């Protein structure tokens, strides 16, 4: 991409997706997205890892209950995850399998995915423009407001002068019906995070996302949670129900990623537990269109006051897969009424970017 995505730890100069397509014996298809936004090289690797792992696990198998089948796959691959020392890549591959199985099940049931997760799921959800870079964050807010967004998230962690200037400019332009958040991408230690939380609270920012590295000791997170006057957000870089539930102690906004860990099955469980605990579920996503649709379906099924993360940086691999399925209007998106995730991806329109295609049968 000409304009890279900039974070406090590095930049993402190119975009890649690895999609998983599962077809059953009746010819019904389900789609999943294998997480891999940084570094981009991990995307192709995880596609190859999926091709290595999945044939013996999936081909010829009968699936009558997706959560049971998914958790059985997790158990089967646990020893390989430990032996290979690759729990993250394997979790991402299995998350994509779970996504695809849920999509397939919903299509077989002739219902949108959100409706088989929760018959009372809503069809319209709030969203926010994400991925705002430090070089042009305030300008991006203006352009995305014109496109229909009413909520925005800026990346910070680039030095006090840059961060405070961007935050002040954006806050000055925010109206009463809009919200503004920030994401530090795990930039600081405890002392630095406490300091940042103070001036961000004074600025009126809505949440402070990932100020510290996700695996920072719990006592540091507790101290930050107690001292912070601004709500904390995170969980995209945590794996495991226990780890994420433990973080409820300090997180106000819980943000598991459907492609990084847990798929639809465990992310939906976390969403319900978070809401029951008085937290707000906001799915994290910064990848392709298939995963974004899964995230939207999850949020609609979970309920609560959460918002859908919508990366507004250019990414044809996402935009062309969505084919207008999630148009933003006054800060909300109306979900497609078609079955499954609501879109049948057309790979022909992104064919000229294809690196590889592995067909296993």
Describe it for me?
It contains 13 helices and 14 strands. The chain has 2 domains: 5-110, Enolase-like, N-terminal domain (Enolase-like, domain 1), CATH 3.30.390; 116-334, TIM Barrel, CATH 3.20.20. Helix content is 42%, strand content 15%. The chain is globular and about 60 Å long.
What is the element layout, followed by pairings?
Elements: E1 5-6, E2 11-12, E3 18-23, E4 29-34, H1 41-58, H2 66-76, H3 78-84, H4 87-108, H5 113-117, E5 124-132, H6 137-146, E6 151-155, H7 160-173, E7 179-183, H8 190-203, E8 208-209, H9 218-227, E9 232-234, H10 241-247, E10 253-254, H11 263-276, E11 280-281, H12 289-302, E12 308-311, H13 316-322, E13 328-329, E14 332-334
Parallel strand pairs: 5-6, 5-12, 6-7, 7-8, 8-9, 9-10, 10-11
Antiparallel strand pairs: 1-2, 3-4, 5-14, 13-14
State the main characteristics:
361 residues; alpha/beta; Enolase-like, domain 1; TIM Barrel; 2 domains; ten-stranded mixed beta sheet; two-stranded antiparallel sheet; 13 helices; 14 strands; globular
Question: Can you tell me the CATH topology of the largest domain?
Answer: TIM Barrel
Based on DSSP secondary structure assignment, what is the total number of beta strands? 14
Task: Give the structural class.
Answer: alpha/beta
Mean pLDDT equals 96
Fraction of residues in β-strands = 5-15%
CATH top level of the largest domain is: Alpha Beta
